[in-house]
Amino acid sequence: STQSTWGVLRKMLLRQHFSFRGPQIVRFCGGGLGAYYPDFLDLKAAGLLFDTLLDQTEWKQEYTVVSAAGPAPVPLPRLTAWYGLGLSAESKYTNPIAAQEWSAPLLFVKQMVEEITNAKYNSVLLNCYVDGRHSVAPHSDNERCLGEKPVIASLSLGAQRNFVISPASTAVIGKLPPSPNERRTSFKISLQPGSLFVMSGDLQKYW
Questions:
Q1: DSSP label at 130?
Q2: Which of 64, 146, 161, 168 meets the CB 3.0–4.6 Å disulfide criterion with 150?
Q3: Which helix (H) or strand (E) element contains residue 205?
């Protein structure tokens, strides 16, 4: 049952709480910061959380925003589910999305992430990539509902996927003063199942 599955998952998450290694830090030109936790969840817990969310989530097929006189809406190459604390998603790419009520597993993982990142999160967008053809286009998470200098935490479940962070404008990055140990070019990382990648500072402004 749903309740018994959540009970098993909760015990697994509690047992490994804070048992992972410290983050790998990546600094980006312009004051952006990335922190990668490769084993935030172990494979067994990550697998059970993946199966639970896949089965219990009310997935939606969203479409690109078009004008009345424009072409027919195009389905986004992924399924999504939006959860927020009294929020409605303000996306540049789709029509406004009504937030769903948080589930127990999502709230528990949210609290785990908040504890290690020392940040509060008001929403989560679940993306389901059904196969290798599904993806998300380059974008910045800079919607107004996320606030100024948002902290974005991305938890990966299921198959390993590449994650790429590129300058929003190479011309703008080129004008910023250089700093030691800061990236000025694209960064690519293979996100493992159960890993957590946290973005903060001005990363969403310049990247």
A1: -
A2: 146
A3: helix 203-206
| Nearest residue to 28 via CA among 176, 191, 194 | 176
Q: What is the largest CA-CA distance in the chain?
A: 57
Angle at 76 between CA 91 and CA 101, to 5 degrees: 55
Confidence of residue 148 (pLDDT cuts 50, 70, 90): confident
Q: Give 139-192 as a 3 state SS string.
A: CCCCCHHHCCCCCEEEECCCCCEEEEECCCCHHHHHHCCCCCCEECCCEEEEEC
For residues 66-81, average pLDDT? 81
Q: How far is CA 179 from the centre of its chain?
A: 27
pLDDT by residue (tens digit) across 39-62? 999 999 999 999 999 999 999 998
